[in-house]
Write a structure and sequence with these properties.
- Helix content is 49%, strand content 28%.
- The protein has five helices and five strands.
- A five-stranded mixed β-sheet has the order 1-2-3-4-5, with helices on both faces.
- Helix 4 (106-113) runs antiparallel to helix 5 (115-123).
- The longest helix has 18 residues, at 25-42.
- It is globular.
Length: 124
């Protein structure tokens, strides 16, 4: 699993690819933690771009729940975008679609967080 981040104005897009499971859920948490802290300091929102995430296990869902709790405690808005069909089904079954706001595209997710971030995304 790889984690990359890109800033668009007052939002950060975090892209995860591969599988989020027991083998790398701790690495995901370790990787996203500092990004959440930075977002809290800069009053930024976070978009989790899962367009390249192929699978998520219960350990991965736990890592997401921990990230959601950290974001909430630090006052950071965190949303999810671009779920693959398998991951979307897992989110629905586990009711994580009630934990996170989910958007079809990164652009839509950024627009929900900040018009400035959506404009920065549009500019490329």
């Amino acid at each position: 699993m790889k984690i990359r981040s890109t800033r668009f104005a007052d939002a950060v897009v975090i892209m995860s690819s591969g599988r989020l499971d027991h083998e790398n859920s701790n690495a995901f948490g370790t990787g996203i933690g500092p990004l959440l802290e930075e977002a809290a300091k800069s009053n930024s929102g976070i978009v989790l771009d899962f367009s390249e995430l192929d699978y998520i296990s219960s350990a991965g869902l736990r890592a997401l729940m921990l990230a959601a709790n950290q974001a909430k405690s630090q006052g950071v808005k965190i949303v999810v975008a671009s779920l693959q069909p398998v991951v979307s089904e897992i989110f629905q079954i586990s009711r994580f679609n009630m934990v996170f706001s989910i958007f079809g595209t990164v652009r839509d997710a950024l627009a929900n967080i900040s018009t400035g971030a959506a404009a920065a995304f549009d500019r490329g």
